[in-house]
Model the fold of this input.
Amino acid sequence: MAVVRITYQHKNRSRAKANIRYIMHRREEKGKKITRELFGWEEEGKRKIEAYEAIDKAGKKYRFLHMTISPDPKQEDTRRDLDLKEMIRKTMLTLQGQFTDEDIYFFASVHEGHTDKRHVNMLVLVPKRLNREQLALLRQSATDNAKAQRERLDQDLGVSTEKSPVQARMWNASRGAACPEQVSARADAGSWDPLCPVCLTRTTDKG
Done:
């Protein structure tokens, strides 16, 4: 099952901009510097300044979510070939459906060179705090898309997608799972240092 994790929910614009720098510039394996593509709803190659402007223009009621979404590397992203941008946009459409009168915005980058678990780190702008039920809904949306992609890709490769009895039971159990993600926040915004919830590493890169 895909993982959807929120590490922070806050209204601090400086922290939000620091997260944009992190998701774009987190160093690769062996400390290699990199600038990742930033994407949103439709546009590719969004610039850092565009994310900063969206953060500055966000209304007072908007919250900034530091979110990570990753497919299961053993059941879904087995060949590291899933279209993670598609998965993210489908999941964000599900989130948008929870706010029919307000727009949500997101800025995301794919992280794959420093971990065996490909994932997407992102900043999401939402008009209110998400609850456990909404998190479970996002998790299911990401899982459904990842599994649909896996089946489609395996069929293209001529790989059998038939599930064994054990796999079928695991799949059914995963669809009914609604284990809530823990959401944490730090009171001291001045000392905040971005932490990737998948890699569990920090960065001090500035930009």
In short: The two ends are 34 Å apart (CA to CA). The domain at 3-191 is CATH 3.30.930 (BirA Bifunctional Protein; domain 2). The longest strand covers residues 3-10. The CA atoms of residues 87 and 145 lie 6 Å apart.
